[in-house]
Amino acid sequence: MKVVFDTYAWIEYFEGTKKGEIVERYLNESEIITPSIVLLELSYKANKKGWDMKKCLSFIKIKSDIVGINEQYILEFGKTYNTARSKIKNFGMVDAFILTASRLNKAQILTGDHHFSSFENSIILD
After folding, report:
1. Is the pLDDT of residue 12 over 90?
2. At 64, is the secondary structure helix, strand, or coil?
3. Would you kindly state where each structural domain of the chain is located, as residue ranges?
4. I need a surface site. Which of 10, 32, 64, 89 has the fewest CB within 10 A?
5. Long-range contact set of residues 46-52: C-beta below 8 Å, sequence gap at least 24
């Protein structure tokens, strides 16, 4: 199974929480995809918490495929973002970036962000 990790999933993992233990199971049993924008959010969190972002990034690069913007992504993003915003008013661009990554890679999204709860391809960490 392919699984897109959002920032929430990586944070739970690196903080070693109970939800992080669930994330670890996916790390060991699935093909993991990390959108590049997640790395930017994680960098912010790492700096705030005093984590070694270089170490976190090295681990993520080993354990997942990092995906970014390409032509196909650009062409799909607008439709994804507008459709999601019509259903969920405060659905942000970062959320749409992650949702686009999941759609283009035919993958589930592992998250604790309830913005994704109305999408059938989401796995919500509760």
Report:
1. yes
2. strand
3. 2-114
4. 89
5. 46/14, 51/14
